[in-house]
Amino acid sequence: MVWLKLDRANRHIGSLDEGIKAFLAEDAAGPLVYEDDQAKQALTDTQIHRVVPMHLSVTAGEVLYQLRSALDHMACILIQKGGGTLSDQSQFPIERFRPTKREDIRRYERKIRGMSPEDAAGVEQYQPYRLGDKRDQHFLVILKTLNNLDKHRGLVLHTVRVRTNVHVTLGPAGAAQGSEHEGHEPTRLTLTAGGLSNEVELVKMERHLTPFVAFSALTGRDDIPVLDTLVSVSFNVRQTIMALGKFL
After folding, report:
1. What global pTM score does this model have?
2. What is the spatial distance between Cα 146 and Cα 1, in angstroms, rounded to a whole number?
């Protein structure tokens, strides 16, 4: 069951990838090229006011549900392996802060009651609080935050962001290059490789905007595309389950 849920999550990620690409292509026949800051701002404003179709949010929610469910199933397998009895509180704990109050400790223990000491220690190794002040960057915090939003309020993907980059085309001695640096446009460039330096002619420099869809609820992470977030969380969930289940 665990692997079926992980595979279902990956299929949803593939479907979401296709849907987002189709949505972004609706208003962009090609690269969004701009020449100056005013044109850049106009193109950016056009993108950030686009509304992402709700069916994409639903698909993203399906990914999150399957990943969270796979972890809970893994926790239940470990409880049964340890000789414990499952209850409606059996689940994979995700804690931003280490439980210190008596009731918090009891709540945590109810979730994993029945696991062997070794398996309980293995689960504890993945708790977000172990990252200290970087806990909110932990993949389990991201998963829990987004999954709870999807269950209780609705997962919103209305945010369309843009990244800027510079595409440089060099003369015959060079090749097309991409750079994140936006500065003055030289007419000659020096390329160094293998200890040898060559000057090449700058043929063309274009400033591009690349639109992408982000999770609007992830404060401080709204510059990360939805697909990058889900692929990363999915990979880490799968690695966690493989590590915890290696002796099953």
Report:
1. 0.82
2. 23
Contacts of 196 (CB under 8 A, 6+ apart): none
| 232, two tokens | 């990363």
Q: Evaluate whether 213 touches 157 at the Cβ level (below 8 Å).
A: yes
User: 97: closest CA among 70, 131, 53, 147?
Assistant: 131
What is the length of the chain? 248
Average pLDDT, the chain: 85
Per-residue model confidence as pLDDT tens digits over 36-67 = 889 888 888 888 888 899 999 999 999 999 99
Residues 6+ apart with CB under 8 A from 142: 218, 221, 229, 233
Q: What is the pLDDT of residues 124-139, one digit of tens each?
A: 999 999 999 999 999 9
Q: Where in the sequence is the domain holding 11, given as residue range(s)?
A: 2-244
Distance CA 180, CA 119 (A): 45
Distance of CA 205 to the CA centre of its chain: 31
Whose structure tokens read 């609080």? 129
Q: Report the distance separating Cα 194 and Cα 87, nearest Å.
A: 63
Q: Specify the number of domains making up the chain.
A: 1
Strand pairing partners for 212? 161
